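Project standup — Tuesday

K.O.: blocked on the structure for the chain from last sprint. Re-posting the sequence here as requested.
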Amino acid sequence: MRKEVINHLTFYFSFFLLVTILRQYFSFSYWPLWVGGLVGTFLPDLDHILYVFVFKPVELTSQRSVAYFKQKRYKEAISLLYDTRLERRDLIFHTFNFLLIFGVLTFWVVSSSGSMFGRGLVLGFWLHLGVDYLKRYLEGETILSDKQKSLTLVIALFLLLFIFGILF
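H.V.: unblocked you, prediction finished:
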């Protein structure tokens, strides 16, 4: 679990440092961008919690996690969710349809919102999804129907992230 958190934080720090340098956001007044990015980086992981508590509460892993949460054994519950994360394939935030809808939302927030926190939130969320898709592609999993389309998707995700972060 620690390796994945470090992986996401490394991408987060690198991307937001690049945005800060290229957009010249050196004033302290841009701290909400960084905070929003940090929140957005960890927000897609709530998908696992929704899966356990709302969408599939009858599965064995869900029942075990809920039992740990009720016993206030949060560390064991989170560890169990992390260890079994590859078993959950019906995550809403990690579907292609959600990605399309969220891409439109991200464009809208980044291009028309004056809120730095909002911009950071959607960019961090988009970055997290991009890192997840990149990891899945590198592990040999086909995200779309074949490897070539999956590679195109990963490249498009990071290209759009760069455009959203740098140009707007």
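K.O.: great, moving the ticket to review. The CA atoms of residues 69 and 77 lie 6 Å apart. Residues 2-43+93-167 form one domain.
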